[in-house]
Amino acid sequence: MTSSDGERRDTLDILEGVRVLDLGMVWAGSICGQVLSDFGADVVKIESRSNLDIARRGRPIIGTEYDPNQNPLFHNTARNKRSLALDLKTEQGRDVLRRIVPHADILIENWRPGALPRLGFGYEELRKLRPDIIMISQTLAGQDGIDARLRAYGPTVGGITGLDSLVGYQGEAPLGMGHAYADPNVGLHSALLALSALERRRLTGEGAYIDVSMWEAMVAALATPLLDCELNGRVAGPLGDDPVPGAPAGVLASGRDPHRLGRAGAAPPPR
Protein backbone atom coordinates (compact mmCIF):
# COMPACT_ATOMS: atom_id res chain seq x y z
CA MET A 1 0.00 0.00 0.00
CA THR A 2 1.03 3.66 -0.28
CA SER A 3 0.88 6.12 2.62
CA SER A 4 -0.40 9.69 2.41
CA ASP A 5 3.13 11.01 1.89
CA GLY A 6 3.61 8.73 -1.12
CA GLU A 7 6.01 6.33 0.61
CA ARG A 8 5.37 2.66 -0.11
CA ARG A 9 4.49 0.55 2.92
CA ASP A 10 4.39 -3.24 3.21
CA THR A 11 1.88 -3.36 6.07
CA LEU A 12 -1.45 -1.92 7.14
CA ASP A 13 -1.57 0.02 10.39
CA ILE A 14 -4.76 -1.21 12.07
CA LEU A 15 -2.71 -3.14 14.67
CA GLU A 16 -0.10 -0.45 15.20
CA GLY A 17 1.03 -0.56 18.83
CA VAL A 18 0.08 -4.23 19.31
CA ARG A 19 3.06 -6.34 20.35
CA VAL A 20 3.23 -10.05 19.56
CA LEU A 21 5.65 -12.75 20.72
CA ASP A 22 5.68 -15.42 18.01
CA LEU A 23 6.93 -18.80 19.20
CA GLY A 24 5.17 -20.50 16.28
CA MET A 25 7.01 -23.01 14.14
CA VAL A 26 6.83 -24.11 10.50
CA TRP A 27 3.78 -22.88 8.54
CA ALA A 28 0.80 -23.26 10.86
CA GLY A 29 2.31 -21.45 13.80
CA SER A 30 4.14 -18.77 11.85
CA ILE A 31 1.33 -17.72 9.51
CA CYS A 32 -0.73 -16.34 12.40
CA GLY A 33 2.07 -13.94 13.30
CA GLN A 34 2.57 -13.18 9.62
CA VAL A 35 -1.02 -11.97 9.25
CA LEU A 36 -0.80 -9.87 12.41
CA SER A 37 2.48 -8.31 11.24
CA ASP A 38 0.91 -7.52 7.86
CA PHE A 39 -1.77 -5.63 9.79
CA GLY A 40 0.89 -3.52 11.48
CA ALA A 41 1.57 -5.39 14.74
CA ASP A 42 5.12 -5.44 16.10
CA VAL A 43 5.85 -9.19 15.90
CA VAL A 44 8.99 -10.71 17.38
CA LYS A 45 9.89 -14.16 16.05
CA ILE A 46 11.46 -16.21 18.87
CA GLU A 47 13.46 -19.36 18.19
CA SER A 48 16.48 -21.14 19.59
CA ARG A 49 19.76 -21.21 17.68
CA SER A 50 20.04 -24.89 18.62
CA ASN A 51 16.51 -25.63 17.37
CA LEU A 52 15.75 -23.34 14.45
CA ASP A 53 12.31 -23.16 12.87
CA ILE A 54 11.83 -26.13 10.53
CA ALA A 55 10.63 -23.65 7.89
CA ARG A 56 14.28 -22.64 7.47
CA ARG A 57 15.13 -26.07 6.09
CA GLY A 58 14.79 -27.24 2.51
CA ARG A 59 16.00 -25.92 -0.82
CA PRO A 60 17.30 -22.35 -0.61
CA ILE A 61 16.28 -19.47 -2.88
CA ILE A 62 19.77 -19.24 -4.36
CA GLY A 63 22.12 -22.17 -4.94
CA THR A 64 21.76 -25.71 -3.62
CA GLU A 65 23.67 -25.59 -0.33
CA TYR A 66 21.64 -25.45 2.88
CA ASP A 67 21.29 -21.91 4.19
CA PRO A 68 18.87 -21.24 7.08
CA ASN A 69 18.35 -17.68 5.84
CA GLN A 70 17.46 -18.57 2.25
CA ASN A 71 14.33 -20.73 2.45
CA PRO A 72 11.32 -19.25 0.58
CA LEU A 73 8.75 -20.52 3.11
CA PHE A 74 10.59 -18.90 6.00
CA HIS A 75 10.96 -15.63 4.08
CA ASN A 76 7.21 -15.65 3.47
CA THR A 77 6.05 -16.35 7.02
CA ALA A 78 8.76 -14.26 8.74
CA ARG A 79 8.23 -11.08 6.75
CA ASN A 80 7.75 -7.87 8.73
CA LYS A 81 8.90 -9.64 11.92
CA ARG A 82 11.80 -8.92 14.20
CA SER A 83 13.98 -11.82 15.35
CA LEU A 84 15.13 -12.93 18.79
CA ALA A 85 17.16 -16.05 19.61
CA LEU A 86 16.32 -17.55 23.02
CA ASP A 87 17.07 -20.98 24.42
CA LEU A 88 14.17 -21.56 26.82
CA LYS A 89 15.87 -24.66 28.17
CA THR A 90 18.29 -22.36 29.98
CA GLU A 91 17.46 -20.15 32.96
CA GLN A 92 19.01 -17.19 31.18
CA GLY A 93 16.71 -17.64 28.18
CA ARG A 94 13.64 -18.08 30.38
CA ASP A 95 14.57 -14.96 32.36
CA VAL A 96 14.71 -12.88 29.18
CA LEU A 97 11.26 -14.11 28.13
CA ARG A 98 9.85 -13.35 31.58
CA ARG A 99 11.15 -9.78 31.26
CA ILE A 100 9.58 -9.15 27.84
CA VAL A 101 6.18 -10.84 28.39
CA PRO A 102 4.84 -7.85 30.40
CA HIS A 103 5.28 -5.73 27.27
CA ALA A 104 3.42 -8.16 24.96
CA ASP A 105 -0.25 -8.22 24.00
CA ILE A 106 -0.29 -11.64 22.31
CA LEU A 107 1.81 -14.80 22.54
CA ILE A 108 1.54 -17.46 19.80
CA GLU A 109 2.82 -21.03 20.11
CA ASN A 110 2.27 -24.42 18.49
CA TRP A 111 4.49 -26.58 20.66
CA ARG A 112 3.47 -29.97 22.00
CA PRO A 113 0.72 -29.78 24.66
CA GLY A 114 2.29 -29.09 28.04
CA ALA A 115 5.71 -28.08 26.68
CA LEU A 116 5.51 -24.37 27.54
CA PRO A 117 3.84 -24.90 30.94
CA ARG A 118 6.68 -27.24 31.90
CA LEU A 119 9.08 -24.38 31.18
CA GLY A 120 7.03 -22.03 33.34
CA PHE A 121 5.11 -20.29 30.57
CA GLY A 122 1.60 -21.68 30.75
CA TYR A 123 -1.30 -19.26 30.50
CA GLU A 124 -1.70 -18.85 34.26
CA GLU A 125 2.01 -18.08 34.64
CA LEU A 126 1.85 -15.57 31.77
CA ARG A 127 -1.13 -13.84 33.38
CA LYS A 128 0.95 -13.16 36.47
CA LEU A 129 3.37 -11.25 34.25
CA ARG A 130 0.72 -9.60 32.04
CA PRO A 131 -2.87 -9.98 33.37
CA ASP A 132 -4.58 -9.12 30.07
CA ILE A 133 -2.31 -11.13 27.77
CA ILE A 134 -3.83 -13.15 24.91
CA MET A 135 -2.27 -16.58 24.41
CA ILE A 136 -2.92 -18.67 21.31
CA SER A 137 -1.96 -22.36 21.32
CA GLN A 138 -2.21 -24.55 18.21
CA THR A 139 -2.29 -28.35 18.48
CA LEU A 140 -3.74 -31.24 16.53
CA ALA A 141 -6.59 -32.01 18.94
CA GLY A 142 -6.44 -29.53 21.81
CA GLN A 143 -4.56 -29.42 25.09
CA ASP A 144 -6.36 -32.31 26.78
CA GLY A 145 -8.39 -35.40 25.97
CA ILE A 146 -7.50 -38.83 24.59
CA ASP A 147 -5.95 -37.44 21.38
CA ALA A 148 -4.06 -34.51 22.92
CA ARG A 149 -0.69 -36.24 22.80
CA LEU A 150 -0.90 -37.05 19.10
CA ARG A 151 1.49 -35.16 16.83
CA ALA A 152 0.68 -34.30 13.24
CA TYR A 153 1.56 -31.99 10.38
CA GLY A 154 -0.75 -30.44 7.81
CA PRO A 155 -0.84 -33.36 5.33
CA THR A 156 -1.74 -35.78 8.14
CA VAL A 157 -4.73 -33.69 9.18
CA GLY A 158 -6.18 -33.93 5.66
CA GLY A 159 -6.45 -37.69 6.15
CA ILE A 160 -7.68 -37.58 9.75
CA THR A 161 -10.55 -35.21 8.95
CA GLY A 162 -11.62 -36.91 5.72
CA LEU A 163 -10.75 -34.05 3.38
CA ASP A 164 -8.36 -36.29 1.45
CA SER A 165 -11.24 -38.66 0.65
CA LEU A 166 -12.87 -35.96 -1.52
CA VAL A 167 -9.86 -35.50 -3.80
CA GLY A 168 -9.67 -37.83 -6.79
CA TYR A 169 -11.95 -39.27 -9.45
CA GLN A 170 -15.18 -41.21 -9.17
CA GLY A 171 -14.67 -44.95 -8.98
CA GLU A 172 -11.00 -44.64 -8.07
CA ALA A 173 -9.10 -44.53 -4.80
CA PRO A 174 -8.80 -41.02 -3.34
CA LEU A 175 -5.67 -39.13 -4.34
CA GLY A 176 -5.52 -36.87 -1.31
CA MET A 177 -4.74 -33.17 -1.18
CA GLY A 178 -1.00 -33.54 -1.70
CA HIS A 179 -0.68 -30.28 0.19
CA ALA A 180 -0.48 -29.09 3.81
CA TYR A 181 -3.78 -27.22 3.55
CA ALA A 182 -4.44 -27.62 7.28
CA ASP A 183 -1.46 -25.40 8.12
CA PRO A 184 -2.60 -22.11 6.54
CA ASN A 185 -6.17 -23.01 7.48
CA VAL A 186 -5.45 -23.15 11.21
CA GLY A 187 -3.05 -20.21 10.92
CA LEU A 188 -5.77 -17.98 9.49
CA HIS A 189 -8.28 -19.25 12.06
CA SER A 190 -5.77 -18.30 14.76
CA ALA A 191 -5.24 -14.82 13.34
CA LEU A 192 -9.00 -14.18 13.23
CA LEU A 193 -9.33 -15.41 16.82
CA ALA A 194 -6.49 -13.11 17.86
CA LEU A 195 -8.30 -10.13 16.34
CA SER A 196 -11.53 -11.17 18.09
CA ALA A 197 -9.70 -11.49 21.42
CA LEU A 198 -8.18 -8.03 20.99
CA GLU A 199 -11.63 -6.54 20.43
CA ARG A 200 -13.00 -8.43 23.44
CA ARG A 201 -10.13 -7.11 25.56
CA ARG A 202 -10.89 -3.57 24.39
CA LEU A 203 -14.46 -3.98 25.60
CA THR A 204 -13.87 -5.93 28.82
CA GLY A 205 -10.23 -5.39 29.75
CA GLU A 206 -9.74 -9.16 29.92
CA GLY A 207 -7.17 -11.32 28.20
CA ALA A 208 -7.88 -14.78 26.79
CA TYR A 209 -6.47 -18.24 26.31
CA ILE A 210 -7.36 -19.66 22.89
CA ASP A 211 -6.84 -23.38 22.31
CA VAL A 212 -6.96 -23.90 18.53
CA SER A 213 -7.32 -27.44 17.19
CA MET A 214 -6.06 -28.13 13.65
CA TRP A 215 -8.56 -30.99 13.53
CA GLU A 216 -11.55 -28.78 14.34
CA ALA A 217 -10.40 -25.95 12.07
CA MET A 218 -10.15 -28.38 9.14
CA VAL A 219 -13.58 -29.89 9.83
CA ALA A 220 -14.98 -26.37 9.47
CA ALA A 221 -13.84 -26.49 5.82
CA LEU A 222 -16.01 -29.59 5.27
CA ALA A 223 -19.34 -27.92 6.03
CA THR A 224 -20.92 -28.70 2.64
CA PRO A 225 -20.33 -32.50 2.55
CA LEU A 226 -21.11 -32.84 6.27
CA LEU A 227 -24.43 -31.01 5.96
CA ASP A 228 -25.26 -32.93 2.78
CA CYS A 229 -24.76 -36.19 4.65
CA GLU A 230 -26.73 -35.01 7.68
CA LEU A 231 -29.70 -33.62 5.74
CA ASN A 232 -29.79 -35.79 2.61
CA GLY A 233 -28.00 -38.98 3.63
CA ARG A 234 -25.43 -38.65 0.86
CA VAL A 235 -21.88 -39.72 1.67
CA ALA A 236 -19.40 -37.67 -0.33
CA GLY A 237 -16.59 -39.29 -2.27
CA PRO A 238 -13.97 -38.14 -4.77
CA LEU A 239 -15.36 -35.20 -6.73
CA GLY A 240 -13.21 -35.42 -9.85
CA ASP A 241 -13.25 -32.17 -11.82
CA ASP A 242 -16.89 -31.44 -11.04
CA PRO A 243 -17.55 -28.20 -9.18
CA VAL A 244 -19.32 -28.23 -5.84
CA PRO A 245 -23.06 -27.67 -6.52
CA GLY A 246 -23.85 -23.99 -6.41
CA ALA A 247 -20.26 -22.84 -6.86
CA PRO A 248 -19.45 -21.06 -10.15
CA ALA A 249 -16.25 -22.99 -10.65
CA GLY A 250 -14.93 -26.01 -12.48
CA VAL A 251 -12.38 -27.33 -14.95
CA LEU A 252 -13.41 -26.15 -18.40
CA ALA A 253 -12.17 -27.48 -21.74
CA SER A 254 -10.52 -24.78 -23.83
CA GLY A 255 -11.38 -24.20 -27.46
CA ARG A 256 -9.21 -23.32 -30.44
CA ASP A 257 -10.74 -19.91 -31.01
CA PRO A 258 -9.30 -16.75 -29.40
CA HIS A 259 -12.23 -16.25 -27.02
CA ARG A 260 -11.56 -16.63 -23.31
CA LEU A 261 -13.80 -16.33 -20.28
CA GLY A 262 -13.66 -12.82 -18.87
CA ARG A 263 -12.27 -11.21 -22.00
CA ALA A 264 -14.08 -8.05 -22.97
CA GLY A 265 -16.16 -8.56 -26.10
CA ALA A 266 -15.95 -12.36 -25.94
CA ALA A 267 -18.73 -14.23 -27.69
CA PRO A 268 -21.42 -15.69 -25.42
CA PRO A 269 -21.04 -19.41 -24.69
CA PRO A 270 -23.13 -21.70 -26.90
CA ARG A 271 -26.32 -23.09 -25.37
Give the strand content.
Answer: 5-15%
Cα radius of gyration in angstroms: 22 Å
Q: Helix tally?
A: 9
Global structural class: alpha/beta
CATH superfamily of the domain at 19-160 and 180-222: Crotonobetainyl-coa:carnitine coa-transferase, domain 1
Per the principal axes of the C-alpha atoms, what is the gross shape?
globular
Q: What is the tally of beta strands?
A: 6
CATH architectural group of the domain at 19-160 and 180-222: 3-Layer(aba) Sandwich
| CATH topology call of the domain at 19-160 and 180-222 | Rossmann fold
Unreliable stretches = none
The pLDDT mean sits at: 85
The percentage helix is: 25-40%
Largest sheet, if any? 6 strands, parallel
CATH class of the domain at 19-160 and 180-222: Alpha Beta
Question: In whole angstroms, how far apart are the ends?
Answer: 43 Å
H and E order? EHEHEHEHHEHHEHH
**Biggest β-sheet: strands ordered side by side in the sheet:** 3-2-1-4-5-6
Give the gist of this structure.
A 6-stranded parallel sheet has the order 3-2-1-4-5-6.
How are the secondary structure elements laid out?
Layout: E1 19-23, H1 28-38, E2 42-47, H2 72-77, E3 81-85, H3 91-100, E4 106-109, H4 115-118, H5 123-129, E5 134-139, H6 154-161, H7 182-204, E6 208-213, H8 214-219, H9 223-232
Parallel strand pairs: 1-2, 1-4, 2-3, 4-5, 5-6
Helix pairs in contact: 1-7
